Amino acid sequence: MIPYGSLYFFYIVFLALIIAVILGLKEKPIKVYGYIINLPFLFLIFGNSKYETVCLFLFYIGELVLIKGYVLLRKRGSKKWVGWIVGALSTSPLVLVKITPTLFNRPIGFLGISYLTFKVVQMVIEIYDGLILEVNVLEFSYFLLFFPTISSGPIDRSRRFMDDIRNTPSKKEYIDMLGYGINSVMRGIAYKFIIAYLINSYWIDMIPKGHSFLNTINYMYGYSLFLFFDFAGYSAIAIGVGYILGVRVSENFDRPFISKDIKEFWNRWHMSLSFWFRDYLYTRLVMTALKKKWFKSRLTASYIGFIITMFVMGIWHGTEWNYIIYGLYHGILIVATDYFQKKSSTYKKCKNNTLWKFASIAVTFNIVCFGLLIFSGYLF
Question: Looking at the annotation, which residues are catalytic?
Fold first, then answer.
């Protein structure tokens, strides 16, 4: 069952959250209750497919062994290359999922494997850095398999998640969290089940067949808005349910279509993913390149880092050409934008001008929509 895809699922979630709300208002820990209800929800989500259930179980066991084993090795002073091997092993299920359909024309894996893999890799990196010294099995399991976000994120951070479940909020704090959670769920329902539905039914579905120029432009704008309201709606619901369970789930969207340039867009769009790539791939790649003097210029290292990061982000979505081109498209755009802003005297002179800001928003919106047209596969 797809999370938040039916009224039945919402009904079960509503009933389950009643006890969580009572515990929160009474200033009692919600963590243990969260442990208890998480497993039935996993069966509700994956139970209709024995294949996906088995894949999820094997993935969980494998990643748990890797994480616990690596913590033990780090305590014994393991070499750096051990961390690289553990990191490679932790990503191997996702790599297998991505390449198998291309090689054998048959998908494997389960719903949400991309998001769960990034949670594990983040922990491997922070164990490598010495930021995570101990891993509790129950807490790790709850973090990795947290049902509100298991299928499509947001991609949470383990240390922040652990802090939330270990600390019981005061009644006042929980009331604030409850209010935010309810507001987020209601906004998500409006986005996903009303606005996205209307866009899909009365705009996209009404576009005539055939890839004429006007049809393509029409689809580009319709799909871009649909994707935002559908995905942002799901994210808002997941975040809201998390807050009600006492977990401050990371935000995922912040009005991305008012961005004034493509760099700002990626600080507003699918934020948990873009920030993950920034913190765990781009920054480390650039720092390594500078340390080892692969490039003479810091700027060159940064620009190569942008291209590689966005290329990997494209492949993370899938190995089809539309995803790869989408990633490279955004990598080139980020580099071009940064270069223009650093070198253009016109930009430096006009960037605070109101008319320039509106024009920048309009240009960025159209550039983003064209990128989402590539992403959709409509052109391929």
Answer: 317
SS3 call for 230: helix
- Residue 49 burial (10 A CB sphere; 0-12, 13-18, 19+): middle
Phi/psi at 366 (nearest 5 deg)? -70, -40
The two three-digit tokens of residue 281, written as one number: 């791939």
Alpha-carbon gap, residue 79 to 159, rounded angstroms:
24
Q: The tokens of 265 are what?
A: 């867009």
Q: Tabulate helix, strand, coil % of the chain (nearest 5).
A: 75, 0, 25
Of the candidates 44, 37, 90, the residue with the CA atom closest to the CA atom of residue 67 = 90
CB 254 within 8 A of CB 271: yes
Per-residue pLDDT of the chain (380 residues; tens, 9 = 90+): 788 888 889 999 999 999 999 999 999 999 999 999 999 999 999 988 898 999 999 999 999 999 999 999 999 887 889 999 999 999 999 998 888 765 556 667 888 999 999 999 999 999 999 999 999 999 999 999 999 999 998 999 999 999 999 999 999 999 999 999 999 999 999 999 999 999 999 999 999 988 899 999 999 999 999 999 999 999 999 999 999 999 999 999 999 999 999 999 999 999 999 999 999 999 999 999 999 989 888 999 999 999 999 999 999 998 899 999 999 999 999 999 999 999 999 999 999 999 999 999 999 999 999 999 999 999 98
Q: Could you tell me the CA-to-CA distances from 117 to 162, 244, 351 in Å, in that order?
A: 18, 25, 40
Q: Pull the structure tokens for residue 375.
A: 């992403």
Q: Which of 235, 217, 218 is nearest to 153 (CA)?
A: 235
Distance from C-alpha of 271 to C-alpha of 237, rounded to nearest angstrom = 16
Please report, as a single letter, which amino acid is at residue 357: K
User: Phi and psi for 319 in degrees, rounded to 5?
Assistant: -90, 0
Which pair of structure tokens corresponds to residue 9? Answer: 């699922």
Radius of gyration of the chain (CA): 22
Please give the DSSP secondary-structure letter assigned to residue 206: G
Query: Using the 8-state DSSP alphabet, how is residue 296 labeled?
Result: S
- Which tokens is 313 given? 């982000």
Instruction: Give CA–CA dist 241/127, Å, rounded.
Output: 29
> Strand, helix or coil at 156?
coil
Crossing angle of helices 283-291 and 298-317, in 10° steps, is 140
